[in-house]
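Cross-check.
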Amino acid sequence: MLALAELLSLLVCRCADLQEAFERVDHDGDGVINTAELEEIARSLNLNLSHSQAEAVVARFGNKGQI
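Predicted model, tokenized:
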């Protein structure tokens, strides 16, 4: 069983990992992922995501054209 200090340390590391991953895809550094950035992510993962599909994802999960 993890001690509280170990658990907190693990959570801090995971948060830092998530922040770093987000910053890699947030190319303009504005703190959100827009449709163009989402399309680029999809291409880098060899996913066939059309512009209209990317817009639909952002509309569904984002706010004002951004995630």
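The chain is about 65% helix and 0% strand. The domain at 4-61 is CATH 1.10.238.10 (Recoverin; domain 1). Passed to J.P. for a second look.
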